[in-house]
Design brief:
Layout lengths: L6 E8 L3 H13 L5 E5 L3 E10 L5 E9 L1 H6 L3 E5 L2 E5 L4 E4 L4 E9 L3 E3 L9 E2 L4 H11 L4 E5 L3 H9 L4 E5 L12 H7 L19 E7 L3 E6 L35 E6 L4 E6 H5 L16 E5 L4 E4 L1 E4 L3 E3 L2 H4 L12 E3 L10 E3 L4 E3 L13 H19 L14 E6 L2 E7 L11 E7 L3 E8 L2 E8 L5 H10 L17 H5 L1
Parallel strand pairs: 1-2, 1-8, 2-5, 8-22, 10-19, 11-12, 11-19, 12-15, 21-23
Antiparallel strand pairs: 3-4, 6-7, 7-8, 9-20, 13-14, 14-15, 16-17, 17-18, 24-25, 25-28, 26-27, 27-28
Bound molecules: flavin-adenine dinucleotide and nicotinamide-adenine-dinucleotide.
The site of flavin-adenine dinucleotide has 37 residues, from helix 1, strand 2, helix 4 and helix 8.
Function: Probable FAD-dependent oxidoreductase; involved in the cellular oxidative stress response. Required for normal sarcomere structure and muscle fiber integrity.
Cofactor: FAD
Keywords: FAD, Flavoprotein, Oxidoreductase
């Protein structure tokens, strides 16, 4: 390492996202006199605001990007260093930043987040979405687009396909149904009609959408066309610095180059075989280009179902890769199969005095049967908070147990303008065939799915304003034997909240 240590801090946290900032807050609250440094590559930090504990495990909050001075004012012992960590030397307890400075630490927490797992690297026509800059790039490119292809079937794809207006969207999913990361086929079937209807507008009358739903073509496609004359009012341009997260798409205008129309074509059970520019396509064997001719689009994407589509650009909504590489060289970090830094039940990595939290890490402690890791704000916040507690406890020689928030997986979000609550093993994760499902569905209103194993509720998917989340959370946590209730459990005429209160 080139230079000598500029300063040694008692604690250094790397990463100004939700996990890192929450870790700093917790650590500085536990040990106000401690010398803490936050080193972050981004010009702003992400802070939790309007935090609301909805129930024992469900929480809601807003995420705001703020100048780091906000945090320094709150914690006088904090130093925020705006630079990226270039290398980490765990043996000498030091790290080097890209602007050539070297800092020492007694304890370190890596909260470097993740980055989009792109279909192909360095392809100007393939966009990933991660932070504010990438969301703004999407908005800019979309404003001139007539057709885009969205690949992926998780959180970003679900939100993007629903939000984009004025541009044809070809949505390629490798599954039989939409939203496989969160939903089963039943829930997907409940949500699909929302692609045909107009989005509820903010206090502006919107015309009844004229739509046609063509029968799925034999090749397993579904096309929805909604004639959209109503335009969303009040949708401002990108709020400078607005953080991505539960409402990332509200802060930007996802408007294509055409007025009104929105057309979503679903291509099921297919993946990307190849992405061509029009020049490359000219020199390749004849493809099924449908009615287009080569050259009418800047990029072409061939799917494994044999179809090739021309488009303006491709959105790779295909998951997250933990941001570990700046920290690995020369160190002995144990990595999980998904590439994350392995952490134990005290958020400690395999390197002494080095912790990790958020998207960059993989929880490798023995999980509660009702909890699984998903790279979400909520878990990034919980992990950051808990890592801060663990770091302080170690220094203060206090005992600490795995926090209750890792007892039950819970997630509140919104898809297709429905409230969505996911609890426990919401898709029967890891249960094999040893479970049964109870489902209650009212078209356009609610979809309730309960996962039962051994007569006990172990998971639930709640779509719509069901108000069942607290009751079901208690039933799962209390491990109550529900066998006697059978299908009555979801009888809409029984007020289940009172019944089990
Ligand atoms: C488009 C989009 C929408 C999402 N919507 C939701 C949602 O609705 N609900 C939900 O629960 N989750 C959502 N997520 C997931 C959520 O954003 C992440 O799980 C969460 O932000 C992870 O927080 P983090 O602090 O671990 O990482 P990040 O928020 O990515 O923060 C990482 C920080 O580390 C910094 N950094 C990285 N490398 C270095 C380095 N070498 N040196 C210094 N600093 C570095 C970065 O600049 C950044 O400040 C969404 C994600 C995306 C991409
Ligand atoms: N409302 C929410 O809760 C929300 C919204 C957006 C994003 N997020 C989170 O942000 C992160 C990023 O979102 P995301 O949508 O990129 O990830 P994701 O994990 O939600 O979805 C990735 C999807 O891409 C698919 N996929 C992966 N590789 C593929 C390939 N080669 N070809 C085709 N499909 C492929 C996966 O099967 C999955 O359906 C995730 O952790 C997600 O949970 C959450």
């Amino acid at each position: 390492m080139a230079n000598r240590k500029e300063k040694t801090f008692r604690f250094i946290i790397v990463g100004g996202g939700i996990a890192g900032v929450t870790c700093v807050e917790q650590l500085s609250s536990q040990i106000p006199s401690a010398d803490v440094a936050l080193i972050t590559a981004s010009p702003h930090i992400k802070t939790v605001t309007n935090y609301r504990q909805v129930s024992k495990t469900l929480e809601e909050f807003d995420v705001e990007e703020q100048p780091s001075s906000v945090l320094e004012e709150k914690f006088p012992n904090l130093t925020v260093i705006h630079s990226a960590v270039k290398s980490l030397h765990t043996r000498s307890h030091s790290l080097e930043t890209t602007d050539g400075r070297v800092f020492g630490y007694e304890k370190l927490c890596i909260c470097g987040g993740g980055r989009p797992k792109l279909l192909t690297q360095e392809n100007p026509y393939v966009l990933g979405i991660r932070d504010t800059d990438s969301a703004q790039e999407l908005q800019k490119r979309l404003s001139k687009a007539k057709r885009i292809v969205v690949v992926g079937n998780g959180g970003i794809a679900l939100e993007l396909v629903y939000e984009v207006e004025g541009c044809e969207v070809i949505w390629a999913v490798k599954d039989k149904a939409i939203g496989n990361t969160f939903f089963d086929a039943g829930a997907a079937q409940f949500l699909i009609p929302s692609l045909e209807t107009n989005k509820p507008e903010k206090d502006t009358p919107c015309k009844r959408p004229r739509y046609t739903t063509e029968e799925p073509a034999p090749g397993g496609s579904h096309t929805f066309t909604a004639d959209r004359n109503a335009r969303r009012q009040g949708s401002s341009s990108t709020e400078a610095g607005s953080a991505l997260g539960p409402d990332w798409h509200e802060g930007i205008v996802l408007q294509g180059s055409e007025q009104g129309t929105r057309r979503v074509s679903l291509e099921y059970q297919c993946e990307v075989e190849k992405i061509f520019t029009s020049e490359e396509l000219l020199n390749s064997p004849p493809q099924t280009l449908g009615h287009e001719n080569v050259g009418s689009w800047p990029v072409y994407i061939k799917l494994t179902n044999g179809k090739t589509f021309g488009c303006d650009f491709v959105v790779s909504a295909t998951g997250v890769v933990p941001n570990t590489e700046p920290f690995l060289h020369g160190n002995n970090f144990a990595l999980a199969d998904d590439g994350g830094l392995q952490v134990d039940d005290h958020m400690m990595t395999s390197e002494p005095d080095v912790y990790a939290a958020g998207d960059v890490c993989t929880a490798c402690w023995e999980h509660s049967p009702m909890w699984q890791q998903m790279r979400l704000w909520t878990q990034a916040r919980q992990m950051g908070w808990y890592a801060g507690r663990c770091m302080a406890a170690q220094v203060l020689s206090e005992p600490i147990e795995l926090d209750f928030c890792f007892e039950l997986f819970s997630h509140i979000t919104k898809f297709f303008n429905y409230k969505v609550v996911l609890l426990g093993k919401f898709n029967g994760q890891g249960l094999g065939s040893d479970h049964e499902l109870l489902v209650r569905c009212t078209k356009g209103l609610e979809y309730v799915k309960v996962v039962l194993s051994g007569g006990r509720m172990v998971g639930a998917v709640l779509i719509g304003e069901t108000d069942l989340e607290e009751t079901f959370e208690n039933l799962i946590l209390n491990e109550m034997d529900l066998t006697p209730y059978g299908e009555e459990l979801l009888n809409p005429n029984i007020d289940i909240e009172d019944y089990f209160d």
